[in-house]
Every structure is written in structure tokens, then in C-alpha cells.
Specification:
Blueprint: E1 13-18, H1 21-25, E2 44-58, E3 61-68, E4 74-81, H2 93-107, E5 115-129, E6 143-155
Parallel strand pairs: 1-2, 4-6
Antiparallel strand pairs: 2-3, 2-5, 3-4, 5-6
């Protein structure tokens, strides 16, 4: 699911719906944690505008921590997959690669250490449920946008 190459990838609506970090964080946590794309959240491309507070490079991609002060100080994580992790089966592969390139061109390369940013960006990505394990900047319900399918800086960076 993280590279949009799972068997249910064609069930995902790629036209983004506008949302907020708070609305994503208010969704009920599904039980059990979905291992397949079975919720409406996972079958939609979501778009929001937020401040990127921190970012770092992980094995599978760039993890960004998003913040929205207008939305009761809500946080969420999003991940831009590393282009090398995308397969020929990855739906929207070109969009995910473009998001990676847009981030690196505008904001620089990630490292394994958390780096502060403070830029405002439009971010689109597919809904994903992760474990609710209290990761830094994670939504309380474990909701993320993973993979990111579009990234555009509004202000900051470059």
C-alpha cells in the first residue's frame, strides 16, 4: 500500500479531496488495523495545506511532520516514497517521483536526522493507517498520507 502497488491500487480515487490535518486525525481508528485497502480513507487521495515542521530520510522515503495551527494545533505524518522503492506496478509512479523531486529541489536532501523546516506546502497523498504508537508528530489515530502523490511549496524553502 505504501507505494500504491497493492492489489487494490485501482480502487483509489486519484483526484484529491480537500481536507485538514484535524479532520484526518478525527477519523475513528479501524479495528483491526487494515493490512489491505478496506476503508474509504485508504481509497482516496487527500489534499491539504500545512506547515512542514520537521523532515528526515528513512529507508522507504522522506517522512514529513505537518502542523496546522488553525486546526487546533493538529499534527500528522506524511511520507514521500523513495523513487527507487517504486515498482512498475506502482500507480501514479510519475506523480510520486515528481513529489520527491519537488521536495529535494525546493527544500534540499533529507538526512537520517530530523531537520527543521517551517515551510508551508500543498501536499496530496493516499490515506494510510499506521500503528498508534506515539511517533513524533503522528496523528493520534495513526492516520497518515502515504504515499504522497503531489507536493508544492507555498512559502519557505528555496
Amino acid at each position: 500500500m505504501k507505494t500504491l502497488s497493492d492489489a487494490a491500487r485501482k480502487s483509489v480515487a486519484l483526484t484529491p479531496k480537500t481536507t485538514t490535518i484535524g479532520a484526518i486525525g478525527d477519523r475513528p481508528f479501524p479495528r483491526p488495523l487494515p493490512r489491505k485497502r478496506r476503508t474509504s480513507f485508504q481509497r482516496q487521495n487527500w489534499e491539504l495545506v500545512a506547515v512542514i515542521t520537521l523532515f528526515r530520510l528513512e529507508d522507504a522515503g522522506l517522512r514529513l511532520i505537518l502542523f496546522d495551527a488553525r486546526d487546533h494545533g493538529a499534527y500528522a505524518n506524511v511520507v514521500i516514497p523513495t523513487p527507487a522503492c517504486l515498482s512498475a506496478a506502482s500507480r501514479a509512479r510519475g506523480s510520486m517521483t515528481a513529489a520527491w523531486n519537488a521536495f529535494e529541489t525546493s527544500c534540499g536532501r533529507g538526512t537520517r536526522e530530523w531537520q527543521p523546516l517551517g515551510a508551508v506546502a500543498h501536499v496530496s497523498g493516499i490515506g494510510f493507517w499506521s500503528q498508534r504508537d506515539g511517533d513524533r508528530g503522528a496523528a493520534p489515530n495513526g492516520a497518515e498520507l502515504y504515499p504522497v502523490t503531489s507536493f508544492r511549496i507555498v512559502v519557505g524553502c528555496g
